[in-house]
Automatic annotation (TrEMBL):
Residues 415-474 form the Filamentation induced by cAMP protein Fic-like C-terminal domain. It comes from Paralcaligenes ureilyticus. Gene3D superfamilies: 3.30.565.60, Schlafen, AAA domain. Residues 13-128 form the Schlafen AlbA-2 domain. PANTHER family: GLPR-RELATED TRANSCRIPTIONAL REPRESSOR (PTHR30595), SCHLAFEN ALBA-2 DOMAIN-CONTAINING PROTEIN (PTHR30595:SF6). Pfam families: Fic-like_C, HATPase_c_4, SLFN_AlbA_2. This is ATP-dependent DNA helicase RecG. One of its GO terms (molecular function) is helicase activity.
Length: 485
């Protein structure tokens, strides 16, 4: 035990470790134990000062008994940690080990079950608010927030046309399929949408979840002092992935026009990592929390993806790095999986770290800040905005796509037309420019539709299935683009 203890006492305080000099402030000790039990467990070492000096405990047996009584008298529901007396460098210490509790939320009796609940954030304890207390209860009971029924709503509150369109390449969304996906559930003899369904495809999502949207910003420099460009994304969650990626790519060209999309090195940001970070945020956000949306902040040297909600009880940041995954939102995760936005359960964060290593980038950072989780992806080289800004006109490009989308009744078709207005391209190249991992069924469909409308044409019309096949705008297509500028 000597060597493990030696290693432990050299570690920094964090989510699962804290040091206390003594029991002179028992309330703070009790808050720490409650926070450990309500989150990921942890160990508290008593007899070690903040400066790493080890004064020890003069009377460890009496202090052990006193601590046991304090815990029994002050914490509810009952908490029974392991308390052990240990010796290190001729000093007596107490080690208190607490496990993530299935009886959460624990609270300090003197403060009550609404004000006395604490959770562990980094190396500090924080009082849980009403929403977080409810989340702690649900997780202890095995209840998933996004599977809960919205009993006051009906199927008419869902945009099933948009959902069916997204699933058209995979399946037809029959009533049974909607039940299987948990987009609908039976409640008192009637079909009602789940919270997950409303988050994914709700016609009026923000009425019920006012913070379920995404805020994207490109900032000048390395802080939020000056903002250069920003958008607010309120579309259905599966579609939001590409909208965020579009914003990031719009601000990530190495002095290149869209016509240079064929170059493999045109993007100066790690697209695979960022796509996984965005999907992870959308799938694991705690949508029961209120106060702020998902935020994507693009700085000169890094991109931060920040989502509401701390880690689920029992989870640590190190667990995330190792690929351990627990689903907070099963409905959203299942739909993303069916739409091939998620390749394999639990692989997203691990892929982010693997990709960073393969690209020679600094290790990404994951931090709990307040009641939010922030994932930071660092860039290989700083992108000084003044050097990049003249290369594109974001507002004009966005306006063009918006007008084309209105005329074509498809955002994807509008983006394809915009790309082909700059250069001819094949399906694989278009998919890459759109941020897709593969040529999706929807992309195939929209290209066929644009061909039928005679807005685009094949460069090799006599060989429609040639691997060298590309597409370009027709005169009619060019006229449409010119009229939409």
């Amino acid at each position: 035990m000597i060597e493990p203890l030696d290693v432990l006492l050299r570690l920094a305080e964090g989510k699962t470790l804290e040091f206390k000099r003594d029991l002179s402030s028992p309330k703070n000790v009790l808050k720490t134990l409650i926070a450990f039990a309500n989150t990921a467990g942890g160990r508290l070492v008593i007899g070690m000062a903040d400066n790493r000096q080890i004064p020890g405990i003069a009377d460890p047996l009496n202090e052990e008994e006193r601590l046991g009584s304090l815990i029994a008298d002050s914490i509810a529901p009952r908490l029974v940690p392991n308390i052990e007396m240990i010796t290190y460098q001729n000093s007596n210490l107490l080690m208190v080990e607490v496990f993530s509790s299935g009886l959460r939320p624990h609270y300090l009796k003197s403060e009550g079950d609404t004000q006395g609940v604490y959770v562990r954030l980094g190396s500090s304890n924080r009082r849980a608010d009403r929403e977080l207390i409810a989340e702690l209860r649900r997780s202890a009971e095995g209840i998933v927030f996004d599977e809960l029924p919205m009993t006051e709503l009906s199927t008419n509150d869902l945009d099933l046309a948009a959902a069916s369109k997204l699933f058209s390449a995979q399946r037809t969304l029959t009533e049974q399929e909607l039940l299987t996906l948990r987009l609908l559930t039976r409640e008192q003899g009637r079909l009602v949408p789940t919270k997950g369904a409303l988050l994914l495809f709700g016609k009026n999502r923000q009425r019920y979840f006012p913070d379920a949207w995404i805020q994207c910003g490109r900032f000048l420099g390395k802080d939020k002092t000056h903002i250069f460009d920003h958008i607010e994304i309120n579309t259905h969650l599966p579609l939001a992935v590409e909208e965020v990626m579009g914003f990031l790519k719009k601000h990530a060209m190495r002095g290149a026009e869209i016509s240079e999309i064929r170059r493999k090195d045109v993007w100066s940001i790690p697209l695979v990592m960022l796509r996984e970070a965005i999907i992870n945020a959308l799938v694991h956000t705690d949508y029961s929390q209120t106060g702020a949306p998902i935020r994507v902040a693009f700085y000169d040297d890094r991109i931060e993806v920040e989502s509401p909600g701390i880690l689920l009880p029992g989870m640590t940041i190190e667990d995330m790095r190792q690929g351990v995954s627990r689903l907070r939102n099963r409905v959203i995760a299942r739909v993303f999986r069916e739409l091939n936005l998620i390749e394999q359960w639990g692989s997203g964060v691990r892929r982010i770290f693997s990709e960073a290593e393969a690209l020679g980038l600094p290790t990404p950072d994951i931090t709990e800040i307040g009641m939010r989780l922030r994932l930071t992806v660092f860039l290989a080289k700083p992108m000084v905005l003044e050097q990049v800004a003249p290369q594109y006109e974001p507002e004009l490009e966005s306006r063009l796509e918006s007008r084309l989308e209105s005329r074509l009744e498809s955002k994807l078709a509008a983006r394809v037309i915009t790309l082909l207005a700059e250069a001819e391209a094949g399906k694989a190249l278009l998919a890459e420019a759109l941020g897709h991992k593969t040529v999706s069924g929807e992309l195939h469909k929209q290209i066929r539709r644009l061909l039928d409308q005679k807005l685009i044409e094949m460069t090799l019309p006599d060989k429609p299935n040639s691997r060298l096949q590309k597409y370009r705008l027709t005169a009619q297509g060019r006229t449409m683009v010119a009229g939409s500028r």
